[in-house]
Design brief:
four-stranded antiparallel beta sheet; mainly beta; 24 strands; globular
Length: about 300
């Protein structure tokens, strides 16, 4: 695998996130939003001004994923369930569904909306590395459905441009799967291995799909950003200046900038000194555009 080391990469926010995750571009606010799971905090970066702000969340809202909401604000996926939250309103988050209620230690992790406004999100145990997680689908009518179970660390939820394929990974097992996707019914079938990383360095974390249908995946613990062709072949591999990139997202007015979150979780002061960009928000031009971020249709 040829690893590119000469790509220009910018640290646009040196936030030193403990666990930066799930960036997404909001075309309305023209801001890149993401979270620090461990603080917890909802953050944004405004490319036009360079402004960065971190909005502290309630300590109970250890949030693993966010979705833009069609009617404004966000859906937060936390250890206490799914919540509506609008930082502009200045009001507390509102619980809408808690599929992991009465399961101590569980929390919601990576998630994204499909193009019909459904929010898909996986759960995990926050400390145990056991197959206790479930993949959920939260519908606009707030019905919450168990779709699959038996996962350790769910990640990489994303869809092909034609909505016919859904991708999903278990970071702990080092496998990305592909499913046939029925956009009308929100149904998945024909699960198969898309990419097996068990004999490679790093583990597949967050992902996004570009306008050409290629999957961009962050390889945590290896510091690689990998572009995978629709057949699972490695098309590109870019070396990043952080060991633990977590999730990519295309942003900017023309969706031509690829933003990447990262983490400094469990770093000693010595490790942080050796890797000063750990936890930063990175940006680079990879020569291809992304797709608009769907919103939760409620």
């Amino acid at each position: 695998m040829n690893i590119e080391t000469n790509v220009e990469i910018h640290a646009v926010v040196r936030a030193a996130d403990i666990l930066g995750e799930v960036p997404l571009w909001c075309a309305r606010s023209r801001r890149l939003w993401w979270i620090d799971v461990r603080r917890p905090a909802l953050q944004y970066y405004e490319p036009s001004t360079g402004r960065h702000a971190a909005l502290r969340l309630h300590p109970d809202l250890v949030t693993g994923a966010i979705a833009l909401r069609e009617s404004g604000g966000f859906v937060l996926a936390a250890q206490t369930g799914f919540h509506y939250y609008d930082p502009a309103a200045g009001t507390p988050a509102t619980l809408i569904a808690n599929p992991e209620e009465n399961r101590p230690g569980m929390r919601l992790n990576d998630g994204k909306c499909d193009r019909r406004g459904r929010f898909w999100c996986g759960s995990m145990h926050d400390t145990l590395r056991e197959p206790l997680g479930t993949l959920y689908r939260l519908d606009p009518d707030l019905g919450c459905h168990r779709m699959l179970s038996g996962f350790v660390l769910p990640n990489a939820i994303s869809w092909s441009p034609d909505d016919k394929t859904m991708y999903f990974a278990d970071t702990h097992r080092q496998v990305i799967w592909a499913f046939d996707y029925d956009i009308d019914d929100g149904a998945i079938s024909n699960r198969r291995v898309f990419k097996d990383w068990t004999h490679q360095a790093g583990r597949p974390d967050g992902a996004t799909v570009d306008a050409e249908g290629y999957v961009w995946n962050c390889m945590v613990a290896a510091g690689h950003l990998v572009r995978l062709a629709p057949d699972g072949r490695v098309d590109r591999c870019i070396q990043l200046p952080v060991t633990n990139p977590t999730c990519p997202a295309f942003g900017g007015g023309d969706l031509s900038t690829l933003y990447i979150t990262s983490h400094s979780q469990r770093f000693t002061p010595e490790q942080q000194a050796r890797e000063p960009l750990a936890g930063a928000l990175l940006a680079l031009d990879v020569g291809v555009r992304g797709l608009p971020e769907p919103r939760f249709a409620s």
